[in-house]
Amino acid sequence: FSSEDDDTISLTDHVKPEKVVCGPGLRRSGDRLVVCKSDVLRHKQPNMFWMESQQRRYVPAKGETIIGIVTVKSGDIFKVDCGGSEQASLSYLAFEGATKRNRPNVQVGDLVFAQFIIANKDMEPELVCMDSSGRANGMGVFGGGGLLFSVSLGLVRRLLSPHSEVLSDLQQLFPCELVVGMNGRLWVKSSRVQQTLVIANLLQSCDTMTAQQRRELFRRVAQGAL
Q: Which domain of life does this protein belong to (predicted)?
């Protein structure tokens, strides 16, 4: 590997564990950083490192928000397809204002925007649709009239970055509603079905494009060439 001196990180030299933040694809082994996934190494000042991947297989992680699909309604528990190796459980009480008498209206096939509160290899993943204060905070059942599709996990992280160039370029083309799940699922809704399909195709194309190629594609769409 070769890179500019200012961009270089040594993966063999000793590092100070308390001063380095490891993101996805990196882990600590004693006082060393170890790469556990073959991807592109990214660095954010001053001390955050992670591997940006194009993988599509999702591994649930506690605290992440995802777009799930309700597959089974069994008693007090809903089973939700979250894109991982097994389905997650979602209690009917895990919604804002839900009680034994006031149950949420959730049906099989509904989309839910939810957060993991349990996610480890030894236990069944568990979701909730409210934050620690009991508020929905944007979570719950949604999805009427929109389109659900999948992208790589790397693109999801790019979309969720504080100053996402992809989102900035997209907002200049079409106004739309966009829900981003950390499990690689996106839901989009625009004023017209044609615009919704164009947005979905543009976002899926961004997976394999460089920044220059993406800007050129968006420019052609803005001019009506596509």
A: Eukaryota
